[in-house]
Amino acid sequence: MSIKANLFYDIAADEIVGLQQLNENKQYLPANNVFTIMARGIFHNWKQPIGYVFVKSSCDAANVKKLIFQTIRELYNINLKVRAVITDVGSNFVNFTNILKVSENNPYFFVDQYKIFYIFDICHLLKALRNNFLKYRFKDKNGNIIHHKYVIEFYERDKKRNYRLAPKLTDAHVRPQAFQKMKVKLASQLFSRHVANGMATEIEVKSLPEEATSTMIFIHNMNNLFDLLNSSKKTSFEKEIFKNMFRGEDYQLNLLNKMLIFFKTVQVLNSVNREVTNTIKSLHCWRITIKSTILLQKELNKSICTRRLNQDCLENFFGAVRQQGGNCFNPTPVQFKRAFKKLFSMQFLQHSEGANSCNDFASMLVAIESKERNQCQIINSILSRTTSAHKSVEVDTTDYRHLDMGEQNSLSYVCGYLIKKCLVKHTCDTCSNFAVACNVLTDDKLLCHFNAFDDDAPFGNLKMPHEAFIFYIATLEKQFASLFSINSILPSCGQNIKAALAAVPIPHPCEQFPHDYLLSLFVRMRIFYSIKLINKQLLSAPKRNRKLAILTHL
């Protein structure tokens, strides 16, 4: 973690805090980094920071080895069995693996008689792969070219649509700047099933060339690989089965072995068609991580929640440290020391009799930083209830917040969502038949086909209403676009828009159809997405230099 170089004289201890101290003696080098080690349970939900050292720049491989070996021995002395070490992909850690002769064939090392598997943080690996993907071209063992230009071509066409195939894609995903390259969220959303399905849709309708198929398949495989190496739940959905805990099942091992071969045989080409594969160190790290995960599960012979095999817990701890100093993004060494001591001991001071300390450990860092935020949420909730003048667009669902919006294909997908919600309110034979009246796979419904979890029917379990209903929703959308800008500055915005949309005749054949609920749900959903889009645009607007802004007030 980066810290601010600053020295502090601790009178009680009669020592200067903030100097590098890798060995027994300090060095007169003001530290601007802190090397931190945390223990984390594989099968039980606990975590605990256990030590740190201040360093000038980074901890070199020799000192990394000394610190890690010493820590592992101390943990074994208190009967904690260390089975794996997880680090990021920094050059010092890569050199550390070279010293230990860790490789794809031997993805482990020994401390005394104990075998320790080495795993690189999957989040750092994904970011590194995204950066290389946007910079170079990949060539697989079959000679197929995987090129980022197809993703950019898909995005440039898709962003101009009112209804998008991949609505989460922004310039930050395909052209990330310095700080955006550090966000795992942007990398995972680029290598996502939605992007792959959107590209598959455009390839099918000839909007993208057939050559883009290899890129689409690569993105699809990376989505599954990240799900498998970042799993935390059980799911029965066929297209989300890779989010299941890692049990060493055949479909999981097949994916891991396939990606292991890919990272071993892939060629990386630069802009002048020159191979630069040997300069991409993260490919080697991918192979070590995949092989370590396979062998670790095989040796433990239990289901593994692979999300615990990353550095998220340590990153969250750094976030908690920063919040201790009034949201200080760059704390000084003494501030880090005090925050570490507080967070380390807080769990023991709040112990309750009969509680499971392991489970409490996992929530220790979250509880400290969330109390004030929860109080603000309660106050805001009370204020929102007391100031509400009407409930004309109130609905009993908010799952549309996770619904993707897109162009013609996504319009059909959204219509299926709306009709499904209405069936919860009222169901009859007429309504049920109307909700699945369109059962023919056409170009404007390919996204629904690819998103269906059941392949027995063209659209699986998804609803696909009558074409008249889709035209009705398209009409509401057109009306909303003209009404929103006018009514957004007026009181009772949603009520006014809903009243105007009520004049549009609905083509549903059932007299008991919940038309009022449908209008409320549509208006709520569209206002939500409109505001979300505006907020994204505001966040992407150019910002003034922070240092320059401070200097102007001096």
From TrEMBL:
Domain Transposable element P transposase-like RNase H span(s) in chain numbering: 1-100
Domain Transposable element P transposase-like GTP-binding insertion: 123-236
Family matches, as Pfam families: TNP-like_GBD, TNP-like_RNaseH_C, TNP-like_RNaseH_N
Domain Transposable element P transposase-like RNase H C-terminal: 309-341
PANTHER family noted in UniProt: TRANSPOSABLE ELEMENT P TRANSPOSASE-LIKE PROTEIN (PTHR48455:SF1)
Name of the featured protein: THAP domain-containing protein 9
Species whose genome carries this gene: Zophobas morio
Source species taxonomy: Eukaryota, Metazoa, Ecdysozoa, Arthropoda, Hexapoda
